[in-house]
Design a protein that fits this description.
Elements lengths: L3 H9 L2 H7 L3 E2 L9 E4 L6 E7 L4 E5 L2 E6 L1 H9 L3 H8 L18 E2 L1 H11 L2 E2 L5 H5 L5 H4 L9 E2 L5 E7 L2 E9 L2 E4 L8 E2 L8 E5 L2 H10 L5 E5 L8 H10 L6 E4 L5 H15 L7 E4 L8 H6 L17
Parallel strand pairs: 3-6, 13-14, 13-15, 15-16
Antiparallel strand pairs: 1-2, 2-3, 3-4, 4-5, 7-8, 8-9, 9-10, 10-11, 12-14
Helix pairs in contact: 9-10
């Protein structure tokens, strides 16, 4: 039976605000549009909070698969209250919160398939200490994955695969899975862009075909002020707009580098990037191409070299 009060709790109480009132703190590094990650400093509980297409705020706990649901479940799973006591607990939160809490930006609504992909992603381990496949098969040094630039942008699933998240305008849209002789994508997810972290003084955006190529480019041409993106192969209809938006976010006077494979398909993809940059309408952005020399892709070029000792440099000249 429909219960108007419970519906109001689920729809009109910002679960992030209630969690903040219980001591949870927003993890800004792991949060993005459409997703808020919050941690409790004492219990070390980590929860992912989103808003469903029905307007309900929902959550899931990273450490317990059974701990998920609406704000009703959040209260009952933590305070062990009856439904009646839960109603009394939540009534003061309709409207103005009864205790001081931070202001939160609007949380965009999310489809259920995204919840499934994000739940799986949240339970994976960050590859900040390196990844056996990337290190042994692809020559990607652990020191690169430990950089803040790539924090949270490469993870390892329970099968030992390397996992790369894709982001669209709403946040995490899915993730690519790579290992020896295997490439897959999150069930129910959609391909968008793999993105490194963005810093305010960046001056270059390097766009490659794959995330592994982007990491390889970062090793071959270290630049602490470069951010990276990859399209994951043949582009879909949504990706050119995502490329345009990524270019448009760059600071004034930045360089956009199409660093695609050295073949006919790579040339076509470079043209897609060039057109996306033109559509930003920004005459201050400089578009260039950069191709591997004597190799098909950047990882081939990296693997042909002796294993380098990697470190970022503060700045380097244009790669073009």
């Amino acid at each position: 039976m429909f219960d108007a009060e419970l519906e109001s709790f689920k729809r009109n109480i910002d679960l992030r605000a209630y969690a903040a009132g219980q001591g949870y703190q927003l993890d800004t590094k792991e949060s993005w549009r459409g997703t808020s990650v919050m941690r409790h400093p004492v219990s070390h509980d980590k929860v992912i909070i989103k808003r469903g297409m029905d307007g309900h705020y929902v959550y899931f706990s990273v450490r317990d698969d059974r701990d998920n649901g609406s704000i009703i479940d959040f209260v009952q799973n933590r305070q062990r209250l009856s439904l009646g006591a839960t109603r009394k607990e939540l009534r003061p939160w309709i409207g103005q919160p009864p205790v001081p809490v931070p202001a939160f930006a609007a949380l965009h609504k999310t489809e259920k398939d995204r919840l499934k992909a994000e739940s799986a992603w949240a339970r994976m381990q960050d590859a900040t200490m390196g990844h056996p496949y990337l290190e042994r098969q692809r020559n990607i040094p652990p020191a690169l994955l430990a950089e803040d630039r790539f924090a949270g942008r490469v993870r390892r699933d329970d099968k030992g695969n390397a996992v790369f998240p894709h982001f669209d305008a709403e946040g995490l849209s899915g993730y690519e899975v790579k290992n020896v002789g295997f490439t897959g994508f999150a069930s129910g997810g959609s391909k968008a862009l793999w993105l490194s972290r963005e810093l305010p003084d960046d001056h270059r955006l390097v766009i490659t075909e794959s995330a592994i190529d982007a990491l390889s480019h970062a090793v071959l041409f270290p630049d602490a002020r470069a951010r990276y993106a990859s399209i994951g192969g043949k582009p879909n209809p949504e990706q050119p707009e995502l490329i345009r938006a990524a270019a448009a976010r760059m600071p004034t006077g930045s360089e956009i580098v199409a660093a695609m494979d050295n073949d006919a398909d790579g040339a076509k993809l470079a043209d897609v990037v060039k057109r996306a940059v033109e559509l930003t309408g920004r005459i201050d952005l400089r578009f260039t191409k950069h191709e591997p020399l004597g190799f098909k892709d950047w990882n081939d070029q990296l693997r042909a070299k002796p294993q380098p000792s990697f470190s970022y440099r503060p700045d380097v000249p244009s790669v073009a």
